[in-house]
Amino acid sequence: MNYAPLLEPIHQFLLCRTPQAWIDEASKPENLTLLLTDHLVCELKAAQTATWLIRKYVADKPSGEAILAWLKPYEDFIFREHADSQFIHAHKNLTKSIIVRNELPWADDLVEKMVLLIKEELHHFYQVWEIMQARGLPYSKITSSRYAKGLLREITTHEPDTLVDKLICGAYIEARSCERFASLAPYLDAELEKFYISLLRSEARHYQDYLTLAAHISPKDITPRVRAIGEAEAKLISEPDKELRFHSGVPAF
Ligand SMILES: [Fe+2]
Ligand SMILES: [Fe+2]
């Protein structure tokens, strides 16, 4: 698969590339369990963010609750370390349609894009878990990286800017994930390389969807916010970091 055209807009959007020092550290065999564990958690967090957006801004109460129920088995596994992986059965049942509670012109667009995103992230979650299972890599809780917290600090605290900033952060997280999958893939074994390349198309679309929504919802030009959040993102990626995680900075440990 020639994925260069897919990555081109991503590389233009991000203000820096993944440092080679991160790739060298992340591709060490002894870090594989940690990396896959963090990847697994990131897939759930991506689904949680989209769920939160739907519930906070558009869905009526029963739809919001139905969508929360989708996530519950995954959350039980990750945060409560339920050994029985109930989500094995859950991931095929994501069919409830969402009823929007308001007349916002972008409500349906947000629901449509975010529901697809949730389904895809939960599918990715299942795929990562399957690989860990097949390799006998156990799941255990890890601390989250500074990355998402660092980006959240950039978010304006009044609406509609808050929502627009959150969507732009979503675009950066998805774009960075896509760029990292592509950067790391050639350094991994054949199975993981194939898997990471297979994720590029959907992650590239997620980035686009977030950005399109931000532009659609914002009453003003989003370019300055895209730039400011992009600068914060590039700093988190290029500065020294004490922990290795999927979105961590330059290894300094
Ligand atoms: Fe994903
Ligand atoms: Fe994604």
TrEMBL record:
It comes from the Bacteria. SUPFAM superfamilies: Ferritin-like. Gene3D superfamilies: 1.20.1260.10. One of its GO terms (biological process) is tRNA modification. GO terms for molecular function: tRNA 2-(methylsulfanyl)-N(6)-isopentenyladenosine(37) hydroxylase activity. InterPro entries: Ferritin-like, Ferritin-like_SF, tRNA-Hydrxlase_MiaE. PANTHER family: TRNA 2-(METHYLSULFANYL)-N(6)-ISOPENTENYLADENOSINE(37) HYDROXYLASE, TRNA-(MS[2]IO[6]A)-HYDROXYLASE. This is tRNA-(Ms[2]io[6]A)-hydroxylase. It comes from Candidatus Pantoea deserta.
